[in-house]
Amino acid sequence: MTSKRFKKLPTETSKLQSKAIEKILTEVRKNCTTKFDESIDLNLQINHKQKKSEINLRTIVNLPAGSGKKIKVAVVCEDGKSNDAKDAGADIVGSDDFIEKIKNGELNFDKLICTPSMMIKLSKLGKILGPKGLMPNPKLGSVTENIKKAVTDAKSGQIEIKNDKDGNIGLSIGKKSFEDEKLIKNYNAVLEVLEKEKSNTTVKGDLIKNIFITSTMGVSYKLKLPKSI
Question: Which of 5, 19, 69, 200 shows the greatest Cβ crowding within 10 Å of its Cβ?
Fold first, then answer.
């Protein structure tokens, strides 16, 4: 059943002319009629199917204005690095004892970071961590000797960009309480990362087909595509 609140929202917004993010944020905010601080979300459709291969993007972006979300970060490291992890704000820090807890199904965290030597042990827990998207990855900066930086990045607004099998990428660039300037900065940071990633792919032509923006409980608007991606 459609709620009274949703019935009051604009309809057929997908048929409207696409606009730059600077010109559409006001409309998106008008639809944030719930009592909680809704997320401002993007859905990007990429040209993931090429003649010679299928494009699978997986990278990270550091949102300059943060994500507005509280991320619970866990760290598996040697005892000598535990203080670095705690000082940087890690919520859970452990070694072999913590790995055993993970093995037994304790996954009460949003992101897992580890040192290279501990990754050897964690790699055996692929069936537990993999399906949850929690397995540390060197490419994504979550397997590193610089634990302090990894934790700080995770806490300050680092998010993962990954397309699904249909070429869709969904992510949040902040909250409705963010100023427009902050949302625009985060949006541009995402585009910059995707532009860099394009050079590492076999994509012919544009990497991005469409970009849509919405709030958690709002309706979707089409954004004007940047020419360079």
Answer: 19
**Which H or E element spans position 149?**
helix 147-155
Distances (CA, A) of 95 to 75, 92, 129, 142, 143: 8, 10, 16, 16, 14
Give residue-wise pLDDT tens across range 110-147.
999 999 999 999 999 999 999 999 999 999 999 999 99
Q: Which amino acid is at 181?
A: E
Tokens of 27: 């409309």
Non-local CB neighbours of 226 within 8 Å, separated by 6+ positions = 191, 208
Q: How far apart are CA 174 and CA 41, in angstroms?
A: 8
Domain ranges of the chain: 16-67+159-222, 73-155
**Which tokens is 118 given?**
């501990």
pTM score: 0.88
Confidence of residue 9 (pLDDT cuts 50, 70, 90): low
- Report the CATH architecture of 73-155: 3-Layer(aba) Sandwich (3.40)
The CATH code of domain 16-67+159-222 reads 3.30.190.20
